Amino acid sequence: MVIQRPAPLAAARLLCAAIALTLPACSVYTLPGSQPPPPEPPASQPSPAPPAPPPAADPSPSPADPNAVAAYGPLLERAEAATARGDYEEALALLERAQRIDPDSADIYLAMARTHAARGDSARARATAERGLLYCSDSRQCAELRNYTH
């Protein structure tokens, strides 16, 4: 007894036909307007109350955490010394470390702005000071940061 296999071309055609017939069943696309609108809610139910507004953000930054100041204070001192001797890269590296400890410290932004200004990069000094203005908590800090934004 000899078993005949279908020709490869016929098998390929059969496979293509089967795929072509099953692919439309997988589609989830519908034409716009082809579905009915959602049902209206019953009139007897009161409309839901609007969501409560989120609490207002406190516009004044919180005072610096004493533990954070104690942690980054020595880094600020070392950065100021590095800036004084003209080692701006070392100063900026120290200030970036301090900023990882307290990313919301206006004092760190002020020191960074001073360092950028000392190295002659007024654009970066201005951008850093503008960012620091978001976190200043007293008039002295704010005034010193504003000096770099002009």
Question: Could you explain the architecture of this structure?
Answer:
The model has no long low-confidence stretch (mean pLDDT 81). The chain has a domain at 66-147: Tetratricopeptide repeat domain (Serine Threonine Protein Phosphatase 5, Tetratricopeptide repeat, Alpha Horseshoe). With 150 residues, it is an all-alpha fold. It has six helices and no strands. Helices cover 57% and strands 0% of the residues. The protein starts with 7 loop residues before the first helix and ends with a helix.
Task: Please tag this protein with its features.
single chain, 150 residues, mainly alpha, Serine Threonine Protein Phosphatase 5, Tetratricopeptide repeat, 6 helices, elongated
CATH architectural category of the domain at 66-147: Alpha Horseshoe
Count every beta strand, where a strand is a DSSP E run of 2 or more residues: 0
- In CATH, the topology of the domain at 66-147 is named Serine Threonine Protein Phosphatase 5, Tetratricopeptide repeat
CATH class of the domain at 66-147: Mainly Alpha
Residue stretches low in confidence (pLDDT < 50, at least 5 long) are none
Nearest-angstrom radius of gyration? 34 Å
Largest sheet: none
Spatial separation of the terminal alpha carbons:
98 Å
Strand residue content: under 5%
In short:
The protein is mainly α and 150 residues long. 57% of the residues lie in helices and 0% in strands.
